[in-house]
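Methods: holo model generation. Sequences were used as deposited, without trimming of termini or removal of tags, and paired with ligand SMILES retrieved from the corresponding compound records. Each pair was processed once, and we did not select among multiple samples. The sequence and zinc ion SMILES for this entry were:
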Amino acid sequence: MSTLDEQALIAFRHELHRYPELSNEEFETTARLRAQLEHHEIRILDLPLATGLVAEIGSGEGPLVVLRSDIDALPIEEQSDVSFRSERPGVMHACGHDFHSCAALGAAILLKQQEAQLAGRVRILFQAAEETGQGAPVLLATGALHDAAVIFGIHNDPTLPPGVIGSKAGPLTAAVDRFKVTVRGIGSHAARPHESIDPIVIAGQLVTALQTLISRNAPSNDNAVVSVTQIHSGTTWNVIPDSAWLEGTVRSFSAETRELLSQRFHQIINGIAAAFNAQVEIDWQAGPPSVVNDANWVEFALEQASQSGFEARVVEASPIGEDFAFYQQALPGAFMMIGTGEPYALHHPAFRVNDDVLAPTARYLSELAVKALVKAS
Ligand SMILES: [Zn+2]
Ligand SMILES: [Zn+2]
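and the model returned the structure below.
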């Protein structure tokens, strides 16, 4: 029977929470995780990673199964009332990646105790830079997932009660695209608008026209979202400015709709700019695709959730983004939502996770890996 020092694991989670680091700056977090792994004599792969690391347990024979956690924090000033609040101004673990990395560490410790009995190898990813969508491609490029049979990932979910693990076959999270549009017109005195090409009027038309992406272009049976979240122009009341810019995001679940929305977005923006005789620049930043769960492996992972003492639930897809999707383009994978039953949403300044769920999640991940090795053999 494997044992886990639950209090030590929770204390380590609080330590990570106290010292959060932004994407690609997780140097101390990586050092802390490395020290924990070394303390438990868990092998760490020698990979060209500036931050983040990959641990391995098991022998060279048999299949390779991968568990993935993420380690980065967000540029948010923490407003939670926990005693281990962030000590770094403007940086916070507001997505619970401290919880994910500790659950993965706990799983590694449990797997290490059964190393001789494992039917293959388990690699445990402590991935950097999830929030910027850069971390997964970097890890894939190291070759650490080459020949892996399956990858499992988790995310805490404040909207599900503790004790519940949720997921579904097919699309689970959205593809995330980000846009910035700059309108260049001609400024003038506010009293002589005929001498201007007014970027504010044009920006208003753009925002209105973009609404038709969802209402008239996206198939009505395939969810998508367009949100304009910033719009800036002008400096005072009696001058028409010469430029305006707006920024926002497009979320979609299928590759076809994602492509369609990108195409129509560019047509609408360029068409309206031409109609009003203005110049536009479109900065379109494609983020991760949709997390698409392998039907067999997600069924297996939900079944294991029940066997590990959780209530397994089939949940709705969610329009959040998650760079785990990049791994699923290379190998089959299943991504699971771990219920924490907390009042604040992901990325909220008062966000919290539920420590009671940490050790059970670690146990679940270790049991999932053990069984997956057998299934993949
Ligand atoms: Zn996040
Ligand atoms: Zn996250």
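The first strand starts at residue 43 and ends at 44.
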